[in-house]
């Protein structure tokens, strides 16, 4: 996302614009946000096109087409004004990377991911065809890869299959290399949904090989090859090659129906961990950077969609033979034709995720890839760290063996391992996707963890370098020496200390220097009009929660115990959850303490929400700074530095700055989470 330029509007319709997502010959796409916190992508036409009657007709058709299509794999329209001086349309924004960028930046997708991509696109096309429409421009740049599956965007030339005259006779609309032969000739078969199946074959080729089925060439050459030559599919794995070849048949009647393709490809999902790690890292960064409003420093960034490592996506072990597809069947058929008024409820994750910070996850053994980005906190006054080691020794803390050792006075740098002293820096691994503990603002790391690490660096008189990576990879990378410390709102659990996952040994384990107390907290409207101070006060009331969180699990169990139960309102984003309370639609919402306290203090400048009580709801968990078992000297030096911060009051100042004073620990302890 780029900042708004001097010629960009600050508001379109009811949406305040935050930044520029992209631009093209027809207009620009902005990231916008409504007053209630809903985040959208606003497609605005260029003003000079407003007087072009043909363009206005096509834009109005795009809005109408997009409004008619629904389903989990199509971005829904939120609002539009095709008759404004400069026509515009807003759709729900989901953090995603285009298939074009993903393949360009991270390489071709593995076969299981391509099959899941295809299954999701079949669902999207079925939703399009169910309304008598043809997309006409399915291509990699019109497909977003998200943590919850693919999304089809841009209905700019989608039109009724009953009327192919979009503009003037003979006008070609579409993208050469992915357009079907019948779209390229002035006289030939009628354009139907079979054209989208042809484009799907091209997308499969691109995703699996990094190139379209007719190579890279001038558009006129691509059009000639499409009509007269066979596609180039030799590099595709056998199963995908057969699938793409069937879709790319020259004769539209010989192409398989969507339902037939769906039977062969398999179900659309689950999408728990369907993308390669480099793409997932890109999505984490995108979620962190793009969902924070740079003009509203206190605004809470949206959580990245909850995902979890589940091994490779499942592939149907016994697909029916592709072979001869037989006579074509209608494109609106089988389970892929959605009802006209379809409501999709996103499923909750099936296990612990990054948002489930209270769950007892353990070492994953996954090593962070080379895509990590590093930032340095400098002890010489540059960057965000200033000064040198502190002067006052702090109080003692519990050691790994249960004893108490007061930190020595004077410089703590001598207590660091020699290799780290020689290097002159500490490398800290973090996910950067959990504000206010850690996140990104204007391209730089910020948050409680960053400030605490900054202060620790001053006490240790050493430079601190942050590297960002996917949360699930952090402990594995720590065990291999990629990081010296991991500091990412990581819960100190006995299993993590022992290197266990589901009772099995997965790594050497880690030690934790515990620095923050967390739990669950209730957030209510300012003034607490319903008098809610404990979970039992929610009986018979509406309460909001975000999908896939430990808070959701807690409320579902609480619902079974309260005499009048709960009316649970579930939301995809925490933006929506907090807005629901601020508007009085819910009496309260439940979230993890740091995020709850920070949001209550910053939402509408602290005038609309407050914590129901400062006491977190059980279970209370400890966040710890993870150190490899093989580095006891480093662990003890960090513990001593934290003890000094506690004694000097710097630690308390940091927590108050971020509105989370009740997360304070009383002393610097090691492995207190057992």
Number of helices: 17
Helix content: 25-40%
| Beta-strand share of residues | 15-25%
Task: Let me know the largest β-sheet.
Answer: 11 strands, mixed
Number of domains: 4
Unreliable stretches covering 5 or more consecutive residues = 157-172, 296-371, 380-409
What's the CATH H-level homologous superfamily of the largest domain? Transferase(Phosphotransferase) domain 1
CATH topology of the largest domain: Transferase(Phosphotransferase), domain 1
Reported CATH architecture of the largest domain: Orthogonal Bundle
- Overall 3D shape: globular
Q: What is the level 1 CATH name of the largest domain?
A: Mainly Alpha
Helical/strand content category: alpha+beta
Counted beta strands: 28
Radius of gyration using CA atoms only: 27 Å
Mean pLDDT: 78
* C-alpha end-to-end distance: 43 Å
Could you explain the architecture of this structure?
β1 and β2 form a beta hairpin. With 674 residues, this protein is an alpha+beta fold. α10 packs antiparallel against α17. Strands 12, 15, 18, 19, 22, 23, 24, 25, 26, 27 and 28 form an eleven-stranded mixed beta sheet that branches. It is built from 17 helices and 28 strands. The chain folds into four domains: 93 residues, Phosphorylase Kinase, domain 1 (2-Layer Sandwich), CATH 3.30.200.20; 195 residues, Transferase(Phosphotransferase), domain 1 (Orthogonal Bundle); 192 residues, Periplasmic binding protein-like II (D-Maltodextrin-Binding Protein, domain 2, 3-Layer(aba) Sandwich), CATH 3.40.190; 101 residues, D-Maltodextrin-Binding Protein, domain 2 (3-Layer(aba) Sandwich), CATH 3.40.190. The chain is globular. Helices cover 28% and strands 19% of the residues. About 18% of the residues have low confidence.
């Amino acid at each position: 996302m780029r900042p708004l330029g001097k010629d960009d509007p600050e508001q379109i319709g009811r949406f305040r614009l935050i930044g520029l997502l992209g631009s093209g010959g027809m207009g620009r796409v902005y990231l916008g946000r409504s007053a209630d916190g809903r985040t959208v992508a606003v497609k605005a036409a260029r003003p000079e096109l407003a007087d072009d009657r043909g363009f206005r007709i096509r834009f109005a058709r795009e809005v109408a087409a997009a409004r008619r299509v629904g389903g989990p794999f199509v971005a829904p329209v939120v609002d539009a004004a095709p008759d404004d001086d400069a026509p515009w349309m807003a759709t729900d924004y989901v953090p995603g990377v285009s298939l074009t960028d993903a393949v360009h930046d991270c390489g071709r997708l593995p076969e299981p991911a391509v099959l899941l991509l295809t299954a999701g696109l079949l669902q999207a096309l079925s939703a399009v065809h169910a309304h008598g429409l043809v997309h006409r421009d399915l291509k990699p740049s019109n497909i977003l890869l998200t943590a919850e599956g693919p999304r089809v965007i841009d209905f700019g030339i989608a039109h009724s299959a009953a009327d192919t005259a979009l503009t003037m006779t003979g006008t070609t609309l579409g993208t050469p290399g992915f357009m079907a032969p019948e779209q390229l000739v002035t006289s030939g078969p009628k354009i139907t949904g079979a054209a989208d199946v042809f484009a799907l074959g091209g997308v499969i080729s691109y995703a699996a090989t990094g190139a379209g089925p007719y190579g890279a060439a001038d558009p006129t050459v691509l059009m000639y090859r499409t009509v007269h030559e066979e596609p180039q599919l030799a590099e595709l794995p056998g199963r995908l090659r057969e699938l793409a070849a069937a879709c790319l048949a020259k004769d539209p009647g010989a192409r398989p129906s969507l339902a037939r393709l769906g039977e062969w490809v398999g179900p659309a999902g689950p999408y728990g961990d369907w993308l390669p790690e480099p793409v997932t890292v890109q999505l984490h960064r995108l979620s962190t950077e793009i969902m924070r409003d740079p003009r509203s420093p206190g605004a809470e960034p949206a959580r990245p969609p909850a995902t979890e490592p589940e091994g490779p996506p499942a592939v149907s072990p016994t697909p029916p033979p592709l072979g001869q597809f037989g006579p074509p069947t209608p494109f609106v058929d089988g389970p892929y034709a959605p009802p006209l008024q379809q409501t999709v409820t996103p499923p909750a994750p099936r296990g612990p995720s990054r948002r489930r910070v209270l769950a007892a996850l353990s070492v994953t053994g996954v090593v962070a890839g080379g895509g990590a980005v590093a930032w340095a906190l400098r002890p010489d006054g540059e960057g965000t760290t200033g000064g040198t080691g502190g002067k006052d020794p702090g109080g003692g803390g519990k050691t790994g063996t249960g004893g108490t050792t007061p930190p020595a006075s004077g410089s703590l740098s001598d207590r660091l391992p020699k290799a780290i002293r020689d290097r002159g820096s500490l490398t800290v691994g973090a996910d950067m996707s959990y504000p206010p503990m850690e996140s990104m603002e204007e391209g730089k790391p910020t948050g409680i963890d960053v400030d605490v690490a900054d202060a620790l660096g001053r006490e240790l008189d050493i430079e601190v370098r942050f590297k960002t990576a996917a949360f699930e990879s952090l402990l594995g990378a720590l065990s291999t020496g990629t990081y010296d410390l991991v500091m990412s709102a990581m819960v100190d659990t006995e299993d993590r200390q022992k290197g266990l996952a589901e009772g099995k040994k997965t790594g050497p384990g880690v030690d934790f220097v515990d620095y923050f107390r967390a739990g669950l907290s209730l957030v209510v409207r300012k003034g607490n009009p319903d008098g809610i101070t404990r979970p039992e006060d929610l009986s018979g009331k509406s309460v909001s929660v975000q999908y896939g969180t430990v808070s959701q699990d807690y409320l579902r169990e609480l619902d079974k115990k309260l005499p009048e139960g709960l009316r649970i309102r579930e939301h995809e984003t925490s933006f929506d959850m907090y807005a629901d309370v601020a508007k009085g639609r819910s009496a309260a919402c439940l979230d993890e303490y740091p995020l709850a306290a920070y949001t209550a203090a910053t939402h509408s400048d602290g005038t609309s929400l407050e914590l129901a009580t400062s006491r977190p709801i059980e279970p209370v968990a400890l966040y710890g700074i993870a150190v490899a078992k093989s580095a006891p000297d480093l662990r003890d030096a960090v513990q001593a530095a934290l003890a000094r911060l506690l004694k000097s009051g710097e630690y308390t100042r940091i927590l108050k700055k971020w509105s989370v004073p009740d997360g304070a620990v009383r002393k610097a302890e090691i492995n207190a989470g057992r």
